[in-house]
Design goal:
Blueprint (H helix, E strand, L loop, with lengths): L45 H41 L6 H14 L4 H16 L6 H16 L15 E5 L7 H14 L4 E4 L8 H12 L2 E3 L8 H14 L4 E5 L6 H14 L25 H5 L1
Parallel strand pairs: 1-4, 2-3, 2-4
Helix pairs in contact: 1-2, 1-4, 2-3, 3-4, 5-6, 7-8
């Protein structure tokens, strides 16, 4: 779901600062000293631990830099706009707008939205409404914000059943688990009583990852009681608990490994506990994930 954007921006940017990644406590456990059974002994001096600490810090720094590099691509592509408009004059209008169009396309705004923005600016320039580079830049910001402004009622339509059951489905690596955690945070802040279900029983770290989000958001969570548990069992138990304990929403994580039969089994299991669930809702918002990949921030505008 898209959050409302501020009415004014000090810098032209489609991105907000990302939330920090989950923190994990890394512990090194040392066994007590025992007599060696042979003449060989393994000793690690302080130099080893210093090197280990340095490597961990370097790895953490590399991960953070990789995350922020994804956002820098959009900023770098759009930085050319400041240069274009700095010494703008009416005689350069066509050249400047052509280069502006190229900058927007490179930033993944898409052809349709790019043409709409550029032609709107061209009309205002010809009409004499925009007379300086700074005015064009402000008009450009306004055009983008207008495209992103939420019109009408866009909250989730969760229906009349309680709890509302939402299954998060999608391809492997699409960001489902993280998005579920962020969705739980938003719904919790809106006053809903939220229960999470760790239904991705195929990915080893999925349950642990969702437990971290549950702790962060202050939500309860249902996880598998044993290894190799069926996803349908975990999710149906969560829905049953949600129904018995008066939860407003049950958010169910699922595996993304094209396990269609597994998803069908989950849906059937949920339906047995609560007929009609999981709830089917229309598209009322978008969640942006994986921006540290090849995509640029302009894609938010083009899909919205």
């Amino acid at each position: 779901m898209a959050s409302p954007l501020p009415s004014s921006l000090s810098h032209f940017s489609l991105l907000s600062k990302p939330a920090p990644p989950p923190h994990h406590n890394h512990r090194l456990l040392l066994a007590p000293n025992r007599p060696a059974s042979s003449g060989l002994q393994c000793r690690a001096g302080t130099g080893f631990f210093n090197r280990l600490g340095r490597l961990i810090k370097e790895k953490a720094k590399s991960d953070v830099e990789k995350l922020f590099s994804g956002f820098s691509k959009t900023r770098d592509n759009l930085a050319v706009i400041d240069e274009l408009l700095l010494y703008w004059n009416l005689a350069d209008t066509d050249r400047v707008l052509d280069e502006l169009e190229e900058a927007l396309l490179v930033s993944d705004f898409g052809p349709k939205i790019t043409i709409k923005i550029v032609e709107s600016l061209r009309e205002d320039i010809v009409a004499g409404k925009l007379k300086s580079g700074s005015e064009i830049k402000e008009a450009l910001k306004k055009n983008v914000l207008d495209l992103l402004t939420i019109k009408g009622k866009t909250e989730l339509q969760l229906g009349y059943r309680k709890p509302a059951v939402i299954m998060i489905v999608g391809v492997n690596g699409g960001g489902k688990t993280t998005s579920l955690g962020k969705l739980a945070y938003r719904l919790k802040n809106e006053g809903a009583k939220v229960l999470m279900a760790a239904g991705d029983t195929f990915r080893a770290a999925a349950g642990d990852q969702l437990e971290i989000w549950a702790e962060r958001t202050g939500c309860e969570i249902v996880v598998a009681e044993k290894e190799k548990a069926k996803a349908a069992t975990v999710i149906s138990q969560a829905v049953k608990r949600g129904k018995e304990q008066g939860y407003d929403i049950v958010l169910c994580d699922t595996s993304g490994r094209n396990l269609m039969e597994e998803l069908i089994a989950c849906k059937k299991a949920v339906g047995k506990v609560m007929p009609g669930a999981p709830n089917i809702v229309g598209i009322t918002g978008l969640i942006l994930t994986k921006l540290d990949g090849s995509a640029r921030g302009g894609c938010v505008v083009s899909v919205w």
